[in-house]
Write a structure and sequence with these properties.
14% strand; binds flavin mononucleotide; Rossmann fold; 34% helix; single chain
Amino acid sequence: MKTIVYYYSRTGSNNYLAERISGKLKCEKEEIRPRINNFFLFMLKISAGVKAVKNNPSDYDRVIVVGPVWVGRFIPPLKGFLKKYREEIKNLYFVSCCGSGDEQKDEKFGHGHVFREVKELMGDKCRECVAFPIGLVVSEDKKKDPDTIMKTRLTDENFKGEIEERFDKFIEGVG
Ligand SMILES: Cc1cc2nc3c(=O)[nH]c(=O)nc-3n(C[C@H](O)[C@H](O)[C@H](O)COP(=O)(O)O)c2cc1C
Protein backbone atom coordinates (compact mmCIF):
# COMPACT_ATOMS: atom_id res chain seq x y z
CA MET A 1 0.00 0.00 0.00
CA LYS A 2 1.49 3.34 -1.05
CA THR A 3 0.64 6.32 1.11
CA ILE A 4 1.36 10.05 0.90
CA VAL A 5 0.77 12.91 3.31
CA TYR A 6 -0.18 16.34 1.93
CA TYR A 7 -0.32 19.17 4.42
CA TYR A 8 -0.97 22.85 4.85
CA SER A 9 0.17 24.69 7.96
CA ARG A 10 0.46 28.35 8.82
CA THR A 11 1.97 28.25 12.29
CA GLY A 12 3.56 24.81 12.35
CA SER A 13 1.32 22.41 14.26
CA ASN A 14 -0.12 20.68 11.22
CA ASN A 15 3.33 20.52 9.66
CA TYR A 16 4.53 18.84 12.86
CA LEU A 17 1.62 16.36 12.73
CA ALA A 18 2.18 15.65 9.03
CA GLU A 19 5.88 15.05 9.71
CA ARG A 20 5.07 12.61 12.51
CA ILE A 21 2.58 10.72 10.35
CA SER A 22 4.93 10.45 7.37
CA GLY A 23 7.79 9.48 9.70
CA LYS A 24 5.77 6.73 11.30
CA LEU A 25 4.37 5.41 8.01
CA LYS A 26 7.72 5.97 6.26
CA CYS A 27 5.99 7.70 3.38
CA GLU A 28 6.27 10.87 1.30
CA LYS A 29 5.11 14.22 2.63
CA GLU A 30 4.35 17.19 0.41
CA GLU A 31 3.17 20.70 1.15
CA ILE A 32 -0.04 22.06 -0.36
CA ARG A 33 0.95 25.39 -1.90
CA PRO A 34 -1.83 27.87 -2.63
CA ARG A 35 -1.29 30.01 -5.75
CA ILE A 36 -1.74 33.03 -3.49
CA ASN A 37 -0.82 32.19 0.08
CA ASN A 38 -2.48 35.05 1.91
CA PHE A 39 -4.21 34.39 5.22
CA PHE A 40 -6.22 37.63 5.11
CA LEU A 41 -7.56 36.90 1.64
CA PHE A 42 -8.48 33.39 2.81
CA MET A 43 -10.39 34.97 5.69
CA LEU A 44 -12.34 36.95 3.09
CA LYS A 45 -12.95 33.66 1.25
CA ILE A 46 -10.75 34.83 -1.63
CA SER A 47 -8.58 32.11 -3.10
CA ALA A 48 -6.83 31.44 -6.41
CA GLY A 49 -6.62 27.68 -5.93
CA VAL A 50 -3.55 25.56 -5.31
CA LYS A 51 -0.39 24.88 -7.34
CA ALA A 52 0.04 21.45 -8.91
CA VAL A 53 1.69 18.98 -6.55
CA LYS A 54 4.90 17.17 -7.51
CA ASN A 55 3.63 13.74 -6.47
CA ASN A 56 0.41 12.84 -8.23
CA PRO A 57 -2.22 11.50 -5.78
CA SER A 58 -3.27 8.88 -8.36
CA ASP A 59 0.05 7.09 -7.76
CA TYR A 60 -0.97 6.36 -4.15
CA ASP A 61 -3.43 3.96 -2.55
CA ARG A 62 -3.96 6.26 0.43
CA VAL A 63 -3.84 10.03 0.68
CA ILE A 64 -3.65 11.72 4.07
CA VAL A 65 -4.50 15.43 4.11
CA VAL A 66 -3.49 17.44 7.17
CA GLY A 67 -4.37 21.05 7.98
CA PRO A 68 -6.04 23.52 10.37
CA VAL A 69 -9.55 24.86 10.87
CA TRP A 70 -10.09 28.62 10.91
CA VAL A 71 -13.39 30.17 12.05
CA GLY A 72 -15.17 26.88 11.61
CA ARG A 73 -14.28 26.71 7.93
CA PHE A 74 -12.97 24.18 5.45
CA ILE A 75 -10.02 26.41 4.61
CA PRO A 76 -9.25 27.34 0.96
CA PRO A 77 -5.87 25.53 0.67
CA LEU A 78 -7.41 22.20 1.80
CA LYS A 79 -10.68 22.62 -0.06
CA GLY A 80 -8.81 23.77 -3.18
CA PHE A 81 -6.54 20.74 -3.02
CA LEU A 82 -9.37 18.23 -2.57
CA LYS A 83 -11.46 19.81 -5.31
CA LYS A 84 -8.52 19.76 -7.72
CA TYR A 85 -7.53 16.15 -7.01
CA ARG A 86 -10.86 14.58 -6.06
CA GLU A 87 -10.82 12.24 -9.09
CA GLU A 88 -7.19 11.19 -8.55
CA ILE A 89 -7.59 10.30 -4.88
CA LYS A 90 -8.53 6.69 -4.12
CA ASN A 91 -8.77 6.69 -0.31
CA LEU A 92 -8.69 9.82 1.81
CA TYR A 93 -7.85 10.33 5.48
CA PHE A 94 -8.47 13.89 6.63
CA VAL A 95 -6.62 15.01 9.73
CA SER A 96 -6.65 18.31 11.59
CA CYS A 97 -4.75 19.76 14.49
CA CYS A 98 -7.34 22.39 15.44
CA GLY A 99 -8.47 24.52 18.35
CA SER A 100 -11.85 22.89 18.91
CA GLY A 101 -12.04 19.89 21.20
CA ASP A 102 -14.21 16.78 20.81
CA GLU A 103 -16.98 18.26 22.89
CA GLN A 104 -17.02 21.46 20.77
CA LYS A 105 -16.94 19.77 17.41
CA ASP A 106 -20.55 20.66 16.55
CA GLU A 107 -20.43 24.19 17.93
CA LYS A 108 -20.19 27.18 15.60
CA PHE A 109 -16.40 26.98 15.23
CA GLY A 110 -16.07 23.23 15.67
CA HIS A 111 -14.18 20.92 13.31
CA GLY A 112 -17.32 18.77 12.87
CA HIS A 113 -18.67 21.11 10.18
CA VAL A 114 -15.45 20.84 8.22
CA PHE A 115 -15.42 17.06 8.49
CA ARG A 116 -18.98 16.95 7.16
CA GLU A 117 -17.99 19.08 4.17
CA VAL A 118 -15.01 16.85 3.46
CA LYS A 119 -17.24 13.76 3.54
CA GLU A 120 -19.77 15.46 1.28
CA LEU A 121 -17.10 16.39 -1.24
CA MET A 122 -15.26 13.07 -1.22
CA GLY A 123 -18.11 10.61 -0.67
CA ASP A 124 -17.07 6.99 -0.15
CA LYS A 125 -13.43 7.84 -0.78
CA CYS A 126 -13.32 9.49 2.63
CA ARG A 127 -12.24 6.73 4.99
CA GLU A 128 -11.79 8.74 8.18
CA CYS A 129 -11.64 12.29 9.57
CA VAL A 130 -9.63 12.68 12.75
CA ALA A 131 -9.13 15.74 14.97
CA PHE A 132 -6.07 16.33 17.10
CA PRO A 133 -7.34 19.20 19.29
CA ILE A 134 -4.68 21.44 20.78
CA GLY A 135 -6.51 21.11 24.11
CA LEU A 136 -5.08 17.60 24.38
CA VAL A 137 -1.62 19.04 24.98
CA VAL A 138 -2.46 21.84 27.45
CA SER A 139 -2.89 21.48 31.18
CA GLU A 140 -6.36 20.83 32.61
CA ASP A 141 -6.78 24.37 33.98
CA LYS A 142 -5.93 25.93 30.58
CA LYS A 143 -8.06 23.72 28.35
CA LYS A 144 -10.86 26.30 28.22
CA ASP A 145 -8.57 29.32 27.91
CA PRO A 146 -8.90 30.58 24.32
CA ASP A 147 -5.59 32.46 24.48
CA THR A 148 -3.66 29.33 25.46
CA ILE A 149 -5.45 27.26 22.81
CA MET A 150 -4.59 29.80 20.09
CA LYS A 151 -0.96 30.16 21.14
CA THR A 152 -0.01 26.53 21.79
CA ARG A 153 1.81 24.58 19.03
CA LEU A 154 2.56 20.89 18.82
CA THR A 155 6.14 20.03 19.79
CA ASP A 156 8.15 16.94 20.77
CA GLU A 157 7.81 18.12 24.39
CA ASN A 158 4.02 18.25 24.50
CA PHE A 159 3.13 15.44 22.06
CA LYS A 160 2.54 12.98 24.88
CA GLY A 161 -0.29 11.21 26.69
CA GLU A 162 -3.75 11.51 25.21
CA ILE A 163 -2.64 13.02 21.89
CA GLU A 164 -0.02 10.32 21.40
CA GLU A 165 -2.61 7.62 22.12
CA ARG A 166 -4.93 9.14 19.53
CA PHE A 167 -2.02 9.32 17.09
CA ASP A 168 -1.10 5.65 17.60
CA LYS A 169 -4.72 4.63 17.13
CA PHE A 170 -4.91 6.63 13.91
CA ILE A 171 -1.71 5.05 12.57
CA GLU A 172 -3.02 1.60 13.46
CA GLY A 173 -6.26 2.31 11.58
CA VAL A 174 -4.43 3.53 8.48
CA GLY A 175 -1.74 0.85 8.65
C1 LIG B 1 -7.64 33.04 12.88
C2 LIG B 1 -7.77 31.68 13.45
C3 LIG B 1 -9.02 31.14 13.59
C4 LIG B 1 -9.18 29.86 14.13
N1 LIG B 1 -10.42 29.34 14.20
C5 LIG B 1 -10.59 28.06 14.63
C6 LIG B 1 -11.88 27.45 14.60
O1 LIG B 1 -12.88 28.03 14.21
N2 LIG B 1 -11.99 26.18 15.02
C7 LIG B 1 -10.92 25.46 15.45
O2 LIG B 1 -11.08 24.29 15.81
N3 LIG B 1 -9.68 26.01 15.50
C8 LIG B 1 -9.49 27.28 15.08
N4 LIG B 1 -8.24 27.86 15.09
C9 LIG B 1 -7.12 27.12 15.67
C10 LIG B 1 -6.25 26.45 14.63
O3 LIG B 1 -6.97 25.47 13.91
C11 LIG B 1 -5.06 25.78 15.33
O4 LIG B 1 -4.31 26.76 16.01
C12 LIG B 1 -4.16 25.01 14.37
O5 LIG B 1 -3.41 24.09 15.12
C13 LIG B 1 -3.19 25.86 13.60
O6 LIG B 1 -2.53 25.05 12.69
P1 LIG B 1 -1.11 25.40 12.09
O7 LIG B 1 -0.17 25.68 13.25
O8 LIG B 1 -0.71 24.18 11.36
O9 LIG B 1 -1.26 26.60 11.21
C14 LIG B 1 -8.05 29.13 14.57
C15 LIG B 1 -6.78 29.69 14.44
C16 LIG B 1 -6.63 30.95 13.88
C17 LIG B 1 -5.26 31.53 13.74
